[in-house]
Structures are given as structure tokens and as C-alpha cells.
Amino acid sequence: MDLTVEPNLHSLINSTTHKWIFVGGKGGVGKTTSSCSIAIQMALSQPNKQFLLISTDPAHNLSDAFGEKFGKDARKVSGMDNLSCMEIDPSAALKDMNDMAVSRANSNGGDGQGDDLGSMLQGGALADLTGSIPGIDEALSFMEVMKHIKRQEQGEGETFDTVIFDTAPTGHTLRFLQLPNTLSKLLEKFGEITNKLGPMLNSFMGAGNVDISGKLNELKANVETIRQQFTDPDLTTFVCVCISEFLSLYETERLIQELISYDMDVNSIVVNQLLFAENDQEHNCKRCQARWKMQKKYLDQIDELYEDFHVIKMPLCAGEIRGLNNLTKFSQFLNKEYDPIADGKVIYELEDKE
Amino acid sequence: MTDLTETEKRRLLRERRQKKFSNGGASSRLNKITGQASSHLNAESPLDSPSTETTTPVESLRSSTPDNREDKNTAPQLDLLKQLAAMQAQGAGTDPALDSSTPDLLSLLSSMNGGMPSAEGTPSLGQAPPLAGINQAALDYHDYLLNRLKAWTILVKWVFFLLPYLYLITRPSTAMWPADAFTQSSWFAPLRNPSNFTRVFGTFEFLSISIYYQLLKNVEHKSKIRNLQDTNKLVKLVSLVPEGVLPIPNLKGKLVTVLQYWDLLSMLITDISFVLIVLGLLTYL
To answer: Which tens digits make up the pLDDT trace of A282-334?
Structure first.
């Protein structure tokens, strides 16, 4: 029985079942580069499918990685027909909400209440109010997932076969991934109350207004769908990104354990910024030797700890990995593992993005 | 040997991975990582710590009470969510087009607002508000410990000291007192002298209240519930007021201090009342 694990992401890149792919890890280890690379490789290997890369990190990097501006709405990457990107911007989304609340309040103007509320919200009070709520980025990212599922169910607008998340550093990401579970529990309890008080609440709201119980049930069903999808290993997986250093390895292990505790599938680890100094006769300084020795120490530990994981060892490139061309060149090593001898020259071939 | 399909292989690998993280394997992996780097980082795994099993109210409290340091941010957060929900209630349902475009986030936030305080068993990442994690069983257990302490304190104070003492100073020559060396000694003499009553009573109150507070601390430590901060309704109400709304800084802390002094005063008044009642009764006997 052959249970060897390939040191690449070939199976994920060619997967036709995965709908949600999360890419995460400690800050500064190359999450954005890795998520862009996965998205590009998937888009290249499955040209008939549509892919969406979403940044849920409040400090967005996607625009800089591709060298073009992305916003809160999905926009295709120049030069790729089946890959779109978006950066969830809490302040912009909250401003939209504020504007909608203003127009709602104004349309309520007849009863006098609307004017007061409208004038209060004119200055962006709602956005200011909600913008300071801790975890609002995660809530908005979660909303995007819900909207996406809704669109797919209703067949409205642009739909995507696979969504890749370029996540925020570990803490934010875990909070985001925990939302379905937490919300599920909360809605369960809230549902018990509204089932008892529902008719009364509805009568308070008046005829023709919002059916609170109905809305809650709808939300509960959506959350449950997401929870089920996130815990289905055929639909969702998490790719951990790290560098070969102690703190990064420690945080990766904790992240993996947290993900397992959420019943999430995690089977791939991308190890970035490796020097492979012994194979680089041309650029083999004393510092590189020492650093490579340190990296090898942790690589040995990674190999031992994660023998059942896809461990992808990516090289440290001479230049910045920015722009579609550079990302495409770099990303090939996710599909087919990097060979320091045969592929060594690629790391010096990246174009300068001036 | 049969060839495995890709799905079967993935499943088998997944099971193998899960096996390695189970039965204490997760913590030993973290230990290995920290051990080899001589690190002092925490090597306790989230997979090995019990999350759902609750054996005693205190155990369940330990797993569900959010860390106090995180609580500081949650009260204003809850308040903001409440205001947001109020806005939603005012503006909801007037324009179907607008309504269909934003219900999810508003519903999400309003449901978080309504649901958070009753959440149980959610880890600290869930950002539960203060006391949301303290369940009723734990509070009942704390009340039981507190009531037991109060009952014992009163029993010991009144029955074993105040009552005999009051009887002694009002009936110094009764045959009830043993004529042994101790009761007749010069050390015991000040107790028999009614003019020393205030000094003796004051000393006794000081000692008994000090011992009571020390025992109360032990109870709080045992139940993980701070008596006034976590159980007093007035303190709970004041903790809902965001910092900065009122001109008094750290209102909750000040209120707790005042309530502690009031607690102390009420104990003293109760004991004085007891003394007066007993003295009154003894004059008729």
C-alpha cells in the first residue's frame, strides 16, 4: 500500500472538488506569495474553471503582489481570464452599509424618526461605530463567504468554482474559522428565544416588516452550510505557510493543532525562503552557509514531524516575487518540486518591478 | 496488493495524521519543538486540554470563563453591537431592495449581539463578554460555599464566643464557670471585667472579620468567582457603562471598594445588634 506523500501541491492544484482553500501562517513568512502562487497554478491547470483569490488580511498585499489595484469587488487579474482577486475592505463595506442605512432612514422620513436617524448617520456614524468593533474584518470576510454561497445557490452574478483565501496572521484566521462554530451555537440559543418570542416580536415590528424568525432561520441555515463545507476535507483545506525557523515552526504546529480541533483538513505545508546554499556554488557566502545550516536543522525536524503532510520546499529568490510573470515562474515549484541543481538559475531570473 | 484511489489515500493519510495528534501526541509534538530549541513557550496543546467535559462546576468554569485581560475590550464591543442592532431595528424592512442587499451582515451582527452573552463553552477567541462564560452551576456552587462560610462564621462567633462572653460579664460569679486555674487566672481577669467590654469586643471583631476575609479569599480562589465583582447586580450594571461615559474613572473598582466597606460595616452592625439583643434578654433572666 503506497502512502507516500508528494513534496508538492500537484493534487491540490488539480483538484476538482475543493471549493475553499485557506492559506495562512505567521506574519512575514510569504502567505500572500504562496496564496497567489496556488491561485495562479490552479487557474493555469484548470482553464475552464473560475478562481477567486480573496485577501482577508486587514493589511492587504494582493494589489502589490500582482502590481495592480484590486478592491472590494472581484476583478480579473490582467492576463488571466479565470482568476479574479478582491481585497475585503472593512471601512469601504461599512461606508456602504452606512449609506444604505441613511437612505433607509430618509425613506422613513414621514414619521419624523427617519430625519433624526438620517442626520445622525450622515457623518458616517454607523461606519465609525462598527469599524472599531474587534473582529469586524473576520465578520466581513465571513459575509463574503455567505454571499458567495448565496449567489451560487441562486445562480446570480459571477460565480467561482474555487475560492482561495489569503488570510491574516494566525490569530485573526483562527477567529475567522471559528465563526461558523460560534455562530452556530449562538444562533441555536438565540433561536430558542425567538421561537418563543417570535410572534410577539413580529407583531411589534408591524405587518409587512422583517420576519425575524425567518431571517434567523435563513442565517442559521447559511452558517450551518458553511460549517459543514469547512469541515468537509473534499471541499475545504488549509495550506500552512512557514519558514524554517523555530518560532515559525512552533506557530505552524499550533495552527495545525487548532485546525484539527475545528475538524478542518490540513495536509500541506509550504516552507518558504530556503537558501539551498550547498547547491549554489556561485553565491555561497559564509552567512548563507550558516543560515542554511540553521534552516536544515529545522527542515529535518519538519520532515520528521510532518511525514504525512505535503511539505513543499520553496527557494529564496534573488529578487522580489511581484507581478504575474514572477509569480508564475515561482509558482511552478508548487506543482513540481524545486530541484536546486536543475532549477537553481530560476531564482536569479525574476524581473525587477520598478 | 490493491492500488488505492486518490480519495482512499487521502482518507488514510488523514486518519494517520489524526492518530499522531491524538492521545497526548499533540502536546509531545509541541514539547519536541520547544525542547530542541530550549524554548519556554507553552507546549500544552489545544487538542489535549479538555474542552467539553465538565466534572464539577469549578472545572466547567475554568474552561468557560474568559480571561479577564480579554474582558476589558468586550463590554464596549457589546455596547456598540447593541447600538447597531437598535439602528437595524429602526431602519429594517422599509425598502425591499436595500433589505435584500444587506441582511446578512446586519443579522450577523445583531445575532452576535443577542447571542453572545448566553454562549457557553466558547473559547477565548469567541470574545464573549464578561461573565458570559460563568455558568449558573458555578455561581450556585459559589453561593453554596459563601453561605456555608457565613453560617460557620456566625455560629463560631455568636455561639462559641459572644454568647459565653456576654454571659461571663453579666454572670461573673455563676457556678457555671469552671473554677480551674485558667478561668481564675490573671490573664482571664480582663475578660471578666465589664469595663473592658469595648476593647474586648473591638479586638474580637477585628480578628473575626480578618479571618472571615481570609476565608472568603479561599472561597473565591476555589470557585474562581470574585464575590462582589462577579455576583453583585449593581457592579454588573455599572460594568455595562463604557469607560469614559461618566466623569468618574474606574467606576466599577470604586463601587467594589465601597461595597466591601459596606459589607464590613454590616457585619459589625449585625454583631452589635446581636450583643444588644442578648444583653437585653440577659437582663430579664
So the answer is: 777 888 999 999 999 999 999 999 999 999 999 999 889 999 999 999 999 99
Q: Which residue reads 456614524 in cell numbers?
A: A125
Q: What is the ipTM of this complex?
A: 0.77
Chain A closest-CA separation from residue B234 CA (Å): 26
Q: B126 and chain A: CB distance < 8 Å anywhere?
A: yes
Reported as a single tens digit per residue, the pLDDT across A12-37 is: 999 999 999 999 999 899 999 999 99
Say if CB A330 and CB A350 are below 8 A apart: yes
Q: Computed from CA positions of residues A204, A207, A213, A218, in that sequence, does the dihedral angle turn out positive or negative?
A: negative
CB half-sphere exposure, B103, CA atoms < 13 A: 21
Report CB contact under 8 Å: A308, B17: yes
User: Hey, CA dihedral for B156, B157, B163, B169, is it positive or negative?
Assistant: positive
Nearest to B10 among A182, A193, A233 (CB): A233
Which amino acid, B211? I
Nearest CA in chain A to B102: A97
- Which grid cell is A178? 471559528
Q: Measure CB to CB from residue B9 to each of A3, A216, A258 and give the nearest one.
A: A3
Chain A closest-CA separation from residue B12 CA (Å): 8
CB contact under 8 A, B26 and A104: no
**Which domains does chain A carry?**
15-107+114-275 (3.40.50.300)
Whether the per-residue pLDDT at B212 is higher than 80: the answer is yes
Residue of B148, B127, B153, B155 whose CA lies nearest to B222: B148
Domain ranges of chain B: 136-284
